[in-house]
Amino acid sequence: DRRSAGAVANDGVIEAKSAMHLSQTNFASSHITTTSYEGNVLLSGEIDSEASKQKATEIVKSINEVNKVYNEPAVQANSSLTTRMNDSITASKVRAALLDNKQVTLTSIKVVVDRGICYLLGTVTQTEAEIISKIASRVPGVVQVVRLFTMSTPEELEKRQLIDSKLQQNEAAEVTEGTTEENGKLTSEEGATEEVSVSPVKL
Predict the structure, then answer these.
(1) Cα separation, 61 vs 57, whole angstroms
(2) How far apart are CA 200 and CA 203, in angstroms?
(3) Please, what's the largest Cα pairwise distance for the chain?
(4) How far apart are CA 128 and CA 46, in angstroms?
(5) What is the pLDDT of residues 138-151, one digit of tens each?
(6) Cβ neighbours of residue 152 closer than 8 Å, sequence gap 6 or more
(7) pTM of this prediction?
C-alpha cells in the first residue's frame, strides 16, 4: 500500500464516521457508499434529491482529516439487492484483472462499482492510470470508468516510500527503546513482560 500506516488508519476512521453521520441524519433510507483514500472521500450510490446530495457532501466535508469529497451519488431510487450483488462481483473481477497485471499494484488503489460504474481511487503515475483504466473498462459488467486518481511521478512515489520506511523504522525503535531481553521475553523498565487500505476525469 502506498499509504502510510497512519493514512490507512485515518481512512478507516473517515469511512466509519462518514457512514455513521449519514445514517444519523436524513440519509438512513438512501444507499450511499463512502470510500476514502488518503482523505479523499468518494460518495457513491443513490440518493433522493440534489439537495440531499449537497447536504451529504457538507456532512462528510466537516469530518476531520477529509481533504476532498467526490460527490457521485445518482439522484434516483435505490438500486436493487441484485444490482448491488452484481456490482460486488464486478468489482472483484476488476481487482482480479488488475492483480494479474504486473505493471500496476492493486494495493495502490481502491475499486468501487455502483450500477456498473467503476470508480478508481488512489495515488498513481500517469502510465499506471492509463493501464488501470483500460483494464477496468474491459471487465464484463463495467459500463463506465470514473478516475479519481491523485497523480504522481515515479520519483515522488519513491521519495514517499523512503519517508514512510524511515518513519516505520523510527516507530519500531521507539517501541523497543527501554526494553531488555530476558529468558525469551521482552522486559520493560517498569518490569512488565511480553511474549516475543485528481481531479475526477470521466471516461
Answers:
(1) 6
(2) 10
(3) 65
(4) 30
(5) 999 999 999 999 99
(6) 123, 124, 125, 160
(7) 0.77
SS (H, E, C) the chain: CCCCHHHHHHHHHHHHHHHHHHHHCCCCCCEEEEEEECCEEEEEEEECCHHHHHHHHHHHHCCCCCCEEEECCEECCCCCHHHHHHHHHHHHHHHHHHHCCCCCCHHHEEEEEECCEEEEEEEECHHHHHHHHHHHHCCCCCCEEEEEEEECCHHHHHHHHHHHHHHHHHHHHHHHCCEEEECCEEEECCCCEEECCCCCEEC
| Residue owning grid cell 488501470 | 132
CA atoms within 13 A on the CB side of 52: 19
Predicted confidence (pLDDT) at residue 73 exceeds the cutoff of 70? yes
